Amino acid sequence: MNGTIYPTRQISEIRLTMGWAWARRWLPAVAACASVALVLAAARWAKDPSLNLLAAGGSLVCFYALGYSVRKYQQPFSPSLRHLKRHQYGDVWNSLAATPELAGQSAAGEHEESELRRSVQSTIRNLRELASISPNDEVLEIGCGIGRVGRELVPHCRNWTGSDISEKMLSHAARRLEGVENTRLVLLRGGSLSEFPSKSFDVVFATNMLGHLDEIDRWTYVEEAFRVLRPGGRIFLDNIDLESDRGWIMFVKDAERLRSVERPPYMPRFSTSSEFVAYLSHAGFETIAVHRRPPLFIVTAKKAG
Asked: How many other CB atoms are there within 10 angstroms of residue 224's CB atom?
């Protein structure tokens, strides 16, 4: 099923704080033009010549405000999420996918299609190298977002299934994957992979995703990944590495920036490779290996076959 949202469960629509001005993006241009017209009219009909200078200065200010507004509106709008808790993953990421641009920025830090496709190339190389993805593999991605990885990975495998807890993210993924063969999108019911039967995939991976989850939810997905993998199947997980210099610098900057404010519910939680190795080991995986790709660590393993 190409670009099809698969399970039947629909999660309820949530209220998005889009902002009055965001819904009226024409307003800055109208306000700037009206201001210029008023200032010029005053300069023309007023008797004081000094108003000519005021007109010129006012015009510059108005056009600067217009240019600033245009630049700001080119950036995705970030809705307020204060009413949501971290564990409300579906609601959080539905909020962060209110528009295609915001969805891309939230999932990958980019919203231009060309940049989205360019940003994923290192991930594709890592998956092909470390998970040994081949043209015969049926692949499952947990937390696929807008399908950024799947769109570039599917030429290298038999088929790709993208799963996510956010219905809105999947709707944007369906649009991006329209016409791309051998892809499927599945809406997850919660913190598991219960939509999939056991032993149904050759590779399961999660990239740029587990850092947004609490530890218990990370463990649950690892357990579920073991269940849905066929004997000999492989798993690929990554997160920002606290033990790397770059990862630690990122952590410290976040700590300084957010020390005295409420942390947003989507804020990533960095970790160490030993945490993920523990999950994989206790789930039953073998041949566990840690790979360093600063600021990330990547952990791979196999299910006995």
From this structure: 20
